[in-house]
Amino acid sequence: xxxxxxxxxxxxxxxxxxxxxxxxxxxxxxxxxxxxxxxxxxxxxxxxxxxxxxxxxxxxxxxxxxxxxxxxxxxxxxxxxxxxxxxxxxxxxxxxxxxxxxxxxxxxxxxxxxxxxxxxxxxxxxxxxxxxxxxxxxxxxxxxxxxxxxxxxxxxxxxxxxxxxxxxxxxxxxxxxxxxxxxxxxxxxxxxxxxxxxxxxxxxxxxxxxxxxxxxxxxxxxxxxxxxxxxxxxxxxxxxxxxxxxxxxxxxxxxxxxxxxxxxxxxxxxxxxxxxxxxxxxxxxxxxxxxxxxxxxxxxxxxxxxxxxxxxxxxxxxxxxxxxxxxxxxxxxxxxxxxxxxxxxxxxxxxxxx
Length: 354
Ligand code: ADP
Ligand code: MG
Prior knowledge:
globular, 3-stranded antiparallel β-sheet, 17 strands, binds adenosine-5'-diphosphate, alpha+beta, T-fold, binds magnesium ion
């Protein structure tokens, strides 16, 4: 087992806020507190309007600043409930539960689950398994909420042997048009050991879908915040970009850079939220698929910004696992291939070199 360094857990804990958001809304929240300069009342809809929900195992906040009104907020909240029911590991009727408790090698799944799994497969492939959706046998052993102790070494070794890379895929019944969302979709396991974990991609994926729902309802300015996965639609009603601050557990303020974004997502993979301390060592929830242990490379967080929140979410975990230089190379090659402009921001331990 690797020797792991403690990183001033006490200070970090004292900075933790109730909502434990990785990326905190800074200026974006300001209009909500003071009354938004550009807020307007359309009919009986008063802006900004907001909905708080606990779904996807986290605090979620949907805020509409302009367009769509209450109906759009209701539709988005309903959609969020539907995605939670599809992806919740503990819900016996969810697709992920049915995949992980299957008796055969094929499980019929919803087209949305198929899209989530295809994105997971893609980022797994380009990150050479740093982002590993088949890591579930190992993540299942780590309990950062209740038990909070390092798993037994034998159990961990056995679980690691069950993390089989690339031994599953999704397929459509409609062979002529595999991208058709109308036909039936299946998860297919080529190895009976495969169990799926979507914890590092689902929130981002859902944020993208909620954006689509809101856009279809004429929302022109909004923030979707799913436990720190932030996606904004448009700009603030006064025409200025949304501002979000990246949390920095090393500073007194608790924040580092303030990013200005519009029509963009920002997602952080950080190790100062889900963790526990045992024998003076901090164990956190981003795991190295090779060792089954928390990644220890001096990074405290990786934030990725870009158009797709699902891509940001999966990439920030992949980049975290790869470390700073390989992670940057991964992002550059993704941008080259996709002709995109995803950006990455690192926060590392003060006592750790690049
Ligand atoms: P959060 O859930 O706080 O947003 P992340 O997006 O970084 O955090 O995802 C961490 C979650 O992803 C873990 O709780 C676990 O379920 C899963 N996970 C951990 N390590 C990996 C990995 N190497 N590849 C894919 N998923 C992972
Ligand atoms: Mg995440």
